[in-house]
Structure formats: C-alpha cells, structure tokens
Amino acid sequence: MSEQNEKLDHVDDEATRRMEQRLVRKLDMTLMPVVWVLYFFNYMDRNNIALGLVGNQFNVAVSILNVGYVLMQLPSNMILAKVRPSIYIPACAMLWSCVSASTSAVHSYGGIIAVRFVLGVVEAPFWPGAFYMLSSWCVFPELALRTAILYSGLVVATVFSGLIAAGVFAGLDGARGLAGWQWLFIIEGSGSFFFAFLAMFICPDFPESKTGSGRWLFSEEERKLSIERIARDRVSAPKADESIMHGLKLAVMDYRTWVFSLMLCSNHSAYGFNNFFPSIAKGFSIGSQTVTLVLTAPAYLVGTVISFALVFSSDRNKERGLHISVPLCFAVVGFIITVSTLSKAARYFASFLYVGGLFGSNAIVYTWAASTLNQTPAKRACATAVVNIMSQMDAPRYILAMLLMMAFSAISICTCIYMKTVLRRANKKLLREGEETGIKASLYPL
C-alpha cells in the first residue's frame, strides 16, 4: 500500500512540475517581452535630449528628470499593489510616450526643464513596478535571470540609441519643416505608445487576480499553483497585517532595507562610468568618432552575456552574495588598470572587466533584496521601491571618477559580505525555531 502511495505522490509531483514549467513558459511569452520592450523605450525616451543646450543647462536638464523619478517611485509601487498592473503600467507608459513626444515642440530652456521633470514623474512607475510584477510571479530560482533579461533592455538601448538617432537624422532632418531631433522624439514616443497600448491586452495582473490576460492565459489550476509557489517562496514569518501602510512601516523599520539600499546605491554609483564611457573610449584614440562609438558596443554586449551567465549560475546554485561581490572585484581591477596606465590595449581590456562586473552584479542585487524583504506583498512593493530610490541618490585618465567608482565597488562588496553573514545567522535561528515547532522553515537566500 505504501508503494502505491509513493507512486501516486511521484505522479502528482511530476504533473505539478509540468504545470509549473507550462506556467513559467506562458509568463516568458507574455509578461517578459512586454516589460522588456517597454523598458527599452523607457530608457530611450529618458535619454533623448538634443536641444542644443549649453554649459550647465544640459546637466540640469538631465538631472531634473531624476527629481521627478525619485519622488514618484514609492507612491507608485504603493498604488500598484492595490490596482491592476495590466492597466496601470501600460497607462504610465502611454503617458511618458506623450510627454516625450511633446519635447519636439519645446524651444526654450524653461520648457525643457518642465517637460523633463514631468517625464521623470510618469516614467518612475515603470522599473520598480515591472520588477515588482516579476517578483509577484517568479520564485527565487527564476527571478535573477529574468531581471537580467529585463535589464538587457537598457543595454540594447545604450548600444543602439546612437544608431537609431543617426538613421533619423540622415533620413528625416528637415522633412516637413521639422529638425531631426524633433522627429527622433516623435518616432520613439509613437513607438512606445503603440507597444504600451498592446501591453494592456497581453500583460497579466497578479496571480490571485482573474482579470487581464490571466483570464484566458492561465487555467484555474495554474493560477492556484502560482499563488502556492509564491507563498512557499516567502521567508518564514509570523502572520502579519498585509495593508500597504503596514508594508511601508515594515520596509522602513527593517535595517536590511537600508543595507540593500547602500549596496545598490554603491553599485549604481560605480556604474556611473556609463555616463562618460564614450569619452573614455575616445581617449583610446583608435579612430574616428564613428569607430569610437562602434568600439563601445562590444564591452556592453560582453557585459550582457556575462550578466546572463552570472544570474543563471546564481539561480541554479541559489546563491547571491558571492555572485555580486566576485564580479565587483573584477570591476575594481578594471578601474585600477584604467588609472594605472595609458596603454590603449590595456585600458580597452579593462573596460570589459568593469562593464561585465557591474552589469553582472546589478540584477542580482535587486533579486536578493526582493527575496529577502518579502514577508508580505506590501512590504516587498515598498521595500523594492525604497531600495531603488536610494540607488539614484579628469581626462585622459579620469582618475577622480575611477577612484570614486573603485570606492563604491568596494562598499558594495562589503555590504554583500555583511548581508550574507547576517542572513546566515538569521537562517540558523529559523532552523532552530523549525525544529522546536516541527514546521519546516523557509530560509533567506544567501
């Protein structure tokens, strides 16, 4: 009789695994492409600014976007936890498309400042919202790879934005009385609006919802399974009030939120090389400006490949801390080489080290934070927004910039080691409590 029961259990487990694979495949064919394309346009729209600004005007116009971006992220994720994502996120995308396209009609410094601030406000919901959606559907062993795929939208936008702009300027500059930069805003704004509209019909809502594409995309059994596996993936915790304000309180009061904030802030600060990487490449004096721009692409593409390999390994081995700190050590080596020599070959090689190291670690930081601060859905929504908010906060060697990025990389490595130590201690406590109560503990990811 017991053999028969074991066989039945095996059949049930196999059927559940097949259903889970089918569920993840459906998400990869719907949610992932939607958020990737929208993130691609999000980054393209955010970085299009070509109005002939001079001096400090350009820096202010670029920076003012971050003011609106920071102000709106936390309120937006608090709203998202209570509304339909399939409407809210695409609606925000349609708004930013319109605001970005309207930049084509701006001809004054005051106008561009106003538009850029509003653009930051309407773009702010997307990244933390998209990541929160992924963490609502994907369990710990799946999340890092999909976050890296989403993050690759930024990389592709960085690599191809110059090529797209060159094509628009070459073919449309002066057409119908509009300058090339005006056509650039109009075309990219129209493209993102179109895809955002389609997203409303493709993007699912939360697993427990029976609205959006989930009505026809998932069976009742698949919906129940998605809820169960997310519940199993949560770290063991006492039953808590799941209201959004209580979730905000839990996120703010948890010191680990601030450690992750420092970790991601340091990581993003070290990633600041992205703002002047073309200037670094120009310092190689390898060829024309076109050749220089082309030479920046391989480092980004290799960095993307490295990030996929790292997150695949991180998910497979269920480990986060070493997969963040080890790549950052390579980034530090790259920064050291850059400030230590003027050799073109050595500095070009060094760019692959710090681009690959920082791309590889960034996505894993997000997933580690979401997997650790997930005692309730409301806490996860607020905590991931807080962490993301805090992360925003000399040629030819660029010595000062490189030294700062080395320091920030080192800080990020230290926070990884600290967090890994703290969570290992917390897991031991959870295991002791599990032995006392007889209930299997769900542990923090390390």
From TrEMBL:
Compartments reported by the entry: Membrane
Keywords assigned by UniProt, alphabetized: Membrane, Transmembrane, Transmembrane helix, Transport
Transmembrane segments: 56-75, 87-107, 113-135, 147-169, 181-203, 291-312, 324-342, 349-369, 398-419
Classification via SUPFAM superfamilies: MFS general substrate transporter
Topological type in the membrane: Multi-pass membrane protein
Annotated signal sequence range: none
Origin: domain of life: Eukaryota
InterPro entries: MFS, MFS_trans_sf
Recorded GO CC terms: membrane
Gene Ontology molecular function: any one: transmembrane transporter activity
Pfam family name, one: MFS_1
PANTHER family (UniProt xref): MAJOR FACILITATOR SUPERFAMILY (MFS) PROFILE DOMAIN-CONTAINING PROTEIN, PERMEASE-RELATED
UniProt-recorded name of the protein: MFS general substrate transporter
